[in-house]
Amino acid sequence: MLMSLFVLGLGILALAVFFVWKPHVKEPQVSVERKRYPIKPDVKVEEVVEPQIAVVQKPKSRATPEAKPPRPRYCVIVASCKKRANAESLVNELKVRGYTASVKEVTMPGRGTWYRVTLGPFSSQQGAQAVARKFEETQGMECFVTLTE
Question: Is 29 contained in some domain?
Answer without folding.
Answer: no
